[in-house]
Backbone:
C-alpha cells in the first residue's frame, strides 16, 4: 500500500481497525491472566489482577488512536461535530457567541473591504508607483502653500523638466449637454493629450487624443463608459458621431473603458470624475496668465531611474528658473513646485481616518473576543462533569483542550459567515451613503480578498477567544476535575482572577476607544460652532452657465443675467437676490494683486487673494456683516469707477494699523495694465473653504465691471457661469418653481442645476467630520456596552458563587449596605484597574489622531475626564444589578444552599 | 499519569527495543513486553498504554507487519514481524544509538 493514502485508510477503515484493536487488547488481557494463573492464582483472581494491571482499557485504546496517522484530522472532525451538537443543545449560548462574533467580524470585514479598496489595492494605472502629482505653491501665503499650476508655469515646467517620461495637465470643467431628451450639466475634464497614455489607459472604443488634437481647436470628445451607456445605449457605432456640448458640436473620437474613473476623488482640486474629456488646447490668454489661474492639476510619470528626491530637487531649481526666465520683469513672485506621490494625493486625506477606524474596530473585536472567552469559560465550568467523564474515558488533557478550541473555532466560523453577510449589507449601505469625497468608493465590495480576510479573521478570533478556556481545561488534571465536578463545580480563585483581568483589559480598551471617539466628537462640536461668516437660513442657491454658442458676446450675457436678477428679485417672497461666481465655502479663484502705495505691513507678503465677482444684493442675500464703508451696489456698473470690497483678514494682513478704505488695488504685478480698483468697504471674514481651513485674504468685485472680453471668455467660462442665490421670507425651496419658470421664459434650453439651500451647502462641508464623529462614537459605544456586559457577567457569577458567604455575613450582623459595598467594590476595582491602564495608553495613541482633530488637543483634559466619568458610571450601572441581588440574599436560604 | 511522561521521553528507545526484540521471531504484544523485560533484566516494564501505541505506530510506518495466529497456549493472538524496511531501520537506529551512547558516556566521564 502506498504511503500517501495511509491516513485516509485510517479514516475509512476505522470500524475494522477499532474492532481489531478491541480483539488485540482482549487477547492481551487473556494472555496476561493466563500468566497469572500459571503463577498460581485461581482464574477469577488472575483475571482481576490482569485487569488491574492494564488499568483503563479505554485509555489504552485512546493512546493507540492518538498514535495513528490521520488521528488528528479524525479527531478535529469529531470535535467539530461534537461542538455543533453541543450548540444545538444550548442554542442561546451558541447564538450569543455567534452573534457577538458575527457583529464584530462583520464590522471588521466591512471596514477591511473599504481599507483594501481605498488604501491597499494598487491604483488601476500602469506602474502607479512611478506616478506623481505636481503642485505649485506660494510660500508664506496662508492657504496657498499647495495650489494647481497656471498654464504658462505648466508649459514652462514641462519644457524644462528632465525627470519625467511624460507630464500631463487636467482640469474639471462643467458642460451643458443638449440635443438630447433631457438637457443636463455634465462634469467634464479638459486634459492634455498625453494624459491617458501616461496613466497607461487606452479607450475601449475609438482612439485616444493625439498631440495635434491638443494644439488644434477642433472640438473633439472622449466619452466615459457611463455616459455612453446612458445616452447612447452602448451603441458601438458612436465613434465619429457628434454631441452638443455648450451648444457647440463635438465629434466623438472614443469611449473610455468601463470602470475607468478620472479625475479621482480625493485631491483638493479637480477631483470630480468626468463624463466627457476634451483636449486641453490652452488659449493664448491662458498661456499669458502669469500669476493667475493656478488651477491645472498636473500628473507626471517619473523615469524609471529617477527617484522622487531627485525630481523634487529639480522641481525646486525649475521653480526659480521659471520665475526668472518667463515671468514679466515687474512681477517676480516667490514660487515653489512640489512633487508628491500620486497615490498619497488620491488617498492621503483619508489614510489616517481609515487606519484610525480600523484600529477602533480592532479594539471592538478584541473586546468581543474577551466576552466570548468569558462566556466559554463560564460554560466550561458548567461542563466540568462532562469533561471529567471524557477524561476518565481516556481523553488526554491536550485532547480536551483541543476539543474546546475546536468548538470555539466552529462557533467563530459560523460568526464569520454571519459577518460576511452583514459586511455585504453594510458595504452596500456604505457605498450609497459615503461622503462623495471618498476616493475609489466605486471599487468597494466583498470580493475574494475580503472573503479570505473574513475567513482568516474568524479562524483567528476563534483561536484567540478559545485559547484561554482551552488552556484552562488542559492544565487541570482529570482527578481534580472529577473532585470539583463532584462538589458541584464553581470556579477556583485562579480562574476568577483571570476573568477579572480579562474584564479589566476590556475596560482599558474601551477607555482608549472612548478617548479617541470623544476627541473626534469634541472636534466636530468645535467645527460646527465655527462662525462661517454668513447666515445660511432661508437661502436657496442654484447654478446657471451660459454656453458660448447661445451667448457669444458680453452684451448677450449681461442682458440675460440682468433680466434674471431683476425678475427673481421681484418674485413674491424674495427678500434679496444676488449673482456670484462662487458660494462661500467654495471660493476657488486665487489672484495676484498689487497695492497702489503699498502700506508698510504689506512689504514682503505674497500678494494673492481669494476673489469672487458678485452682482445684486449679495451681502444681504448671504448675510455677510459689513464692518466699514459700503458693500458693492447698483452704483457699481460698467463705466463707473472700478471698486472692490475686502475682508477683515486682508485689511489686517496688508494694512495693519493703516486704513485700507480709499486705497487702490489692481490685478497682477505693479506694472500690470489692469485698472485700479478703489476699496470701498471692509466686511467680516467669510470661510472660503471647509470650516476647518484658515480664512485667507479675500476681495469681492462687481461682476458688472468685468471687461467685455473677460466676460465673454469661454475657455474657463468662469464669469458666464454664475450662481443665483435668493434669501426668502419663506421656505426657500418653495421659490425654485417660480425661478425655473422665469429661466424657461428667458431661455428654454438652459438647465438649472445644483439647486440647494445654503444650509445644505454648509452641512455638506462638514459631512466628513460628522461622519467620523458618528462612526467613532458608535464604535466607542459598542465597546462600552461589550465591556459592561463583561463586568456585569463576572460580577453576577461572583455573587451567585458567594451567596453562602454573603448569607453568613448577614447572619453575623453585616447590614445590606455592607454587602452592597462589598460587591460594588469588587466590580469597581476591576473597572478601575482597566481605566488606569487605558488612560495612559490612550494618551500615547491619540497623538496619531491629531490630523483628524480640529481645535482640540489630543490630550484634551475635558475628554479624558469625561471618559473616566462615563466608564465609572457604566461600571456602576453594570455592577448595580448583581450587587442589588446580593443585598436581597435571604440568609436562611443561603445557608441551606450547600 | 506518570507512564505517559515516560513514553514521551523514551519513545525512541522503546521503538528501538521493539524492533530488536522482533529480529529473530514474530511475537504477540505480551510476548514483546516480556522479552523486553527479560532482555533489560527488568529495567523496562512496558505497560500496554505505551506498548500498543508503539506497535501500531511502527506498523503504520511499514517497519512491522502483523497477522493473527495461535499462541503457545492455544489462544488467538496478533503476531508482529519485522519487515525488510524494519531491519534497515533497526541497523540505522542501532548505529545511531551506539554513537549517542558513546558520546554520553564520554561526556559523563569528563564531567
Residues:
Amino acid at each position: 500500500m502506498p504511503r500517501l493514502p495511509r491516513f485516509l485508510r485510517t479514516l475509512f477503515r476505522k470500524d475494522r481497525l477499532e474492532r481489531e484493536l478491541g480483539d488485540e487488547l482482549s487477547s492481551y488481557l487473556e494472555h496476561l491472566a493466563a500468566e497469572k494463573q500459571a503463577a498460581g492464582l485461581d482464574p477469577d483472581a488472575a483475571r482481576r489482577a490482569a485487569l488491574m494491571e492494564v488499568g483503563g482499557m479505554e485509555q489504552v485504546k485512546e493512546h493507540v488512536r492518538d498514535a495513528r496517522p490521520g488521528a488528528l484530522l479524525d479527531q478535529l472532525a469529531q470535535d467539530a461535530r461534537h461542538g455543533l451538537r453541543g450548540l444545538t443543545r444550548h442554542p442561546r449560548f451558541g447564538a450569543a457567541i455567534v452573534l457577538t462574533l458575527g457583529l464584530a467580524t462583520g464590522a471588521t470585514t466591512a471596514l477591511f473591504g473599504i481599507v483594501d479598496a481605498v488604501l491597499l489595492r494598487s491604483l488601476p494605472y500602469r506602474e502607479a508607483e512611478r506616478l506623481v502629482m505636481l503642485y505649485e505653491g506660494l510660500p508664506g501665503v496662508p492657504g496657498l502653500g499647495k495650489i494647481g499650476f497656471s498654464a504658462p508655469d505648466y508649459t514652462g515646467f514641462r519644457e524644462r523638466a528632465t525627470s519625467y517620461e511624460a507630464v500631463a495637465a487636467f482640469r474639471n470643467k462643467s458642460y451643458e449637454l443638449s440635443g438630447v431628451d433631457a438637457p443636463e450639466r455634465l462634469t467634464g475634464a479638459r486634459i492634455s493629450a498625453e494624459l491617458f497614455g501616461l496613466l497607461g489607459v487606452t479607450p475601449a472604443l475609438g482612439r485616444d487624443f493625439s498631440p495635434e488634437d491638443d494644439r488644434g481647436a477642433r472640438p473633439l470628445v472622449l466619452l466615459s463608459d457611463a455616459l455612453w451607456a446612458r445616452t447612447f445605449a452602448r451603441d458601438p457605432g458612436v465613434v465619429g458621431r457628434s454631441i452638443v456640448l455648450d451648444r457647440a458640436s463635438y465629434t466623438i473620437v472614443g469611449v473610455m473603458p468601463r470602470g475607468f474613473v478620472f479625475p479621482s476623488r480625493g485631491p483638493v482640486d479637480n477631483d470630480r470624475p468626468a463624463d466627457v474629456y476634451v483636449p486641453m488646447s490652452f488659449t493664448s490668454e491662458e498661456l499669458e496668465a502669469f500669476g493667475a489661474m493656478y488651477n491645472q492639476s498636473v500628473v507626471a510619470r517619473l523615469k524609471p531611474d529617477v527617484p522622487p528626491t531627485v525630481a523634487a530637487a529639480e522641481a525646486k531649481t525649475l521653480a526659480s528658473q521659471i520665475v526668472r526666465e518667463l515671468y514679466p520683469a515687474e512681477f517676480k513672485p516667490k514660487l515653489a513646485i512640489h512633487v508628491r506621490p500620486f497615490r498619497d494625493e488620491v488617498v492621503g486625506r483619508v489614510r489616517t481616518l481609515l487606519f484610525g477606524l480600523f484600529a477602533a474596530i480592532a479594539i471592538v473585536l478584541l473586546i468581543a473576543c474577551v466576552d466570548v472567552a468569558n462566556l466559554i469559560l463560564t460554560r466550561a465550568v458548567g461542563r466540568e462533569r462532562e469533561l471529567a467523564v471524557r477524561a476518565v474515558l481516556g481523553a488526554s488533557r491536550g485532547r480536551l483542550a483541543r476539543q474546546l478550541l475546536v468548538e470555539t473555532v466552529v462557533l467563530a466560523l459560523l460568526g464569520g459567515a454571519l459577518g460576511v453577510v452583514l459586511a455585504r449589507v453594510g458595504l452596500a449601505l456604505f457605498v450609497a451613503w459615503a461622503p462623495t469625497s471618498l476616493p475609489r468608493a466605486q471599487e468597494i465590495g466583498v470580493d475574494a480578498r475580503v472573503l479570505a480576510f473574513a475567513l482568516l479573521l474568524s479562524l483567528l478570533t476563534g483561536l484567540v477567544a478559545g485559547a484561554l478556556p482551552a488552556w484552562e481545561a488542559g492544565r487541570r488534571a482529570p482527578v481534580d476535575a472529577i473532585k470539583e465536578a463532584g462538589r458541584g463545580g464553581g470556579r477556583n480563585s485562579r480562574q476568577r482572577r483571570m476573568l477579572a483581568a480579562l474584564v479589566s483589559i476590556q475596560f482599558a480598551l474601551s477607555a482608549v476607544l472612548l478617548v479617541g471617539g470623544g476627541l473626534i466628537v469634541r472636534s466636530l462640536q468645535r467645527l460646527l460652532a465655527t462662525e462661517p461668516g454668513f447666515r445660511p437660513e432661508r437661502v436657496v442657491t442654484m447654478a446657471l452657465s451660459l454656453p458660448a454658442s447661445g451667448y457669444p458676446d458680453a452684451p448677450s450675457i449681461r442682458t440675460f443675467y440682468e433680466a434674471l436678477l431683476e425678475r427673481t428679485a421681484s418674485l413674491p417672497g424674495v427678500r434679496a437676490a444676488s449673482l456670484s461666481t462662487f458660494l462661500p465655502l467654495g471660493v476657488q479663484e486665487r489672484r495676484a494683486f498689487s497695492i497702489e502705495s503699498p502700506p508698510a505691513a504689506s512689504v514682503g507678503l505674497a500678494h494673492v487673494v481669494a476673489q469672487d465677482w458678485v452682482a445684486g444684493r449679495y451681502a444681504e442675500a448671504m448675510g455677510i456683516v459689513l464692518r466699514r464703508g459700503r458693500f458693492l451696489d447698483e452704483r457699481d456698473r460698467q463705466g463707473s469707477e472700478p471698486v472692490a470690497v475686502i475682508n477683515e483678514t486682508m485689511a489686517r494682513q496688508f494694512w495693519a494699523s493703516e486704513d485700507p478704505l480709499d486705497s487702490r488695488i489692481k490685478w497682477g504685478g505693479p506694472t500690470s495694465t489692469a485698472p485700479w480698483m478703489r476699496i470701498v468697504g471692509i466686511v467680516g471674514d467669510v470661510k472660503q473653504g471647509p470650516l476647518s481651513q484658515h480664512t485667507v485674504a479675500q476681495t469681492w468685485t462687481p461682476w458688472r465691471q468685468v471687461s467685455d472680453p473677460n466676460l465673454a471668455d469661454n475657455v474657463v467660462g468662469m464669469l458666464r457661469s454664475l450662481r443665483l442665490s435668493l434669501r426668502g421670507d419663506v421656505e426657500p425651496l418653495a421659490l425654485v418653481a417660480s425661478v425655473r419658470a422665469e429661466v424657461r421664459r428667458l431661455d428654454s434650453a438652459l438647465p438649472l442645476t445644483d439647486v440647494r439651500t445654503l444650509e445644505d451647502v454648509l452641512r455638506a462641508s462638514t459631512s466628513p467630520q460628522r461622519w467620523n464623529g458618528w462612526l467613532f462614537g458608535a464604535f466607542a459605544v459598542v465597546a462600552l456596552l461589550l465591556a459592561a456586559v463583561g463586568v456585569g457577567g463576572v460580577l453576577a457569577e461572583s455573587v451567585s458563587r458567594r451567596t453562602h458567604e454573603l448569607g453568613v455575613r448577614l447572619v453575623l450582623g453585616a447590614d445590606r449596605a455592607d454587602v452592597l459595598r462589598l460587591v460594588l467594590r469588587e466590580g469597581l476595582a476591576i473597572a478601575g484597574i482597566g481605566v488606569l491602564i487605558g488612560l495612559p495608553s490612550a494618551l500615547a495613541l491619540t497623538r496619531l489622531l491629531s490630523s483628524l482633530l480640529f481645535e482640540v488637543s489630543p490630550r484634551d483634559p475635558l475628554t479624558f475626564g469625561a471618559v473616566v466619568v462615563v466608564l465609572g458610571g457604566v461600571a456602576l450601572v453594570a455592577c448595580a444589578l448583581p450587587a442589588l441581588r446580593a443585598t436581597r440574599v435571604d440568609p436562611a436560604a443561603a445557608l441551606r444552599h450547600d | 499519569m506518570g507512564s505517559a511522561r515516560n513514553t514521551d521521553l523514551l519513545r525512541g528507545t522503546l521503538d528501538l527495543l521493539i524492533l530488536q526484540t522482533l529480529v529473530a521471531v514474530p511475537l504477540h504484544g505480551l510476548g514483546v513486553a516480556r522479552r523486553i523485560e527479560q532482555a533489560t533484566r527488568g529495567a523496562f516494564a512496558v505497560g500496554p498504554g505505551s506498548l500498543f501505541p508503539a506497535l501500531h505506530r511502527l506498523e503504520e510506518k511499514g517497519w512491522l507487519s502483523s497477522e493473527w495466529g495461535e499462541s503457545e497456549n492455544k489462544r488467538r493472538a496478533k503476531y508482529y514481524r519485522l519487515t525488510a524496511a524494519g531491519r534497515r531501520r533497526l541497523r540505522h537506529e542501532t548505529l545511531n544509538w551506539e554513537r549517542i551512547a558513546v558520546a554520553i558516556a564520554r561526556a559523563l566521564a569528563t564531567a
